[in-house]
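Example record

Each entry pairs one chain with its bound ligand, adenosine-5'-diphosphate.
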Amino acid sequence: MAQELLKITDLSASADEKEILNHLSLSIGRGETHVIMGPNGAGKSTLASVLMGDESYEVTGGTVEFDGEDIGELAPHERAKKGIFMSFQNPIEVPGISLENFIKTALELRSGQKIKAWDFRKEVKRVLDALAMDPSYAERDLNVGFSGGEKKKAEILQMLLLKPRLAILDETDSGLDVDAVRTVSKGIEEYQKDEAASLLIITHNAAILSALSVDAVHILVNGKIVKTGGKELIDLVAQNGFSSFEEEQE
Ligand SMILES: Nc1ncnc2c1ncn2[C@@H]1O[C@H](COP(=O)(O)OP(=O)(O)O)[C@@H](O)[C@H]1O
Ligand SMILES: [Mg+2]
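Structure tokens for the complex follow.
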């Protein structure tokens, strides 16, 4: 494997006394793209939330290392500052701040340096063009009145402008029409052009993965990884569902 960026070891986590993640281990190298698939309720979103430091989950065991450092005690904003980005299944609306200003402020907070409005605007335009997205997006209030598909596209725009070291996409493609799926897919390809950028994609959508280079596919069932393989697992899931993996686990 390429040099490790994210290393999850024996991670267990619970919410409301209920164990959700059960001794889960997973490593992602620099520049690698990993996919997680699994049945509803397997713990995929919980894993993403725990990686981001969401305090509604209690980590009951194991470690999460990012770039060689144990980040288990870091707050979500500190993890974001280290370069971990997560797209949410249900993004929040932020009235009074435009998408463009939101991202600019986030970049300035991360680097501690002011960014020239003119330079930033040019970069925003470049990314909007690459995604074939309407320029008005960047000027609208963040997620306010955005349709489901627009919110997902806005998240991809944020990912490309923030340039995280690890992006976690939790079903960014769910419920999207064909055009929006294409935008998301294009955005992921654009992100992958940076050879150091790593990606964890949680999805059920084989279509979105077909054009992407994927280094590993993990099947998550009942809070643990029950199988790891290559892209062939995606077809296997599309054909047979998850039942065969559930049996394998016993
Ligand atoms: N905050 C929470 N409090 C209580 N139960 C939760 C919480 N978050 C998730 N769960 C439960 O944990 C299980 C896994 O949920 P989730 O991680 O959302 O699954 P997935 O994303 O794989 O569909 C589900 O049974 C869900 O109801
Ligand atoms: Mg989920």
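The CA atoms of residues 89 and 148 lie 10 Å apart.
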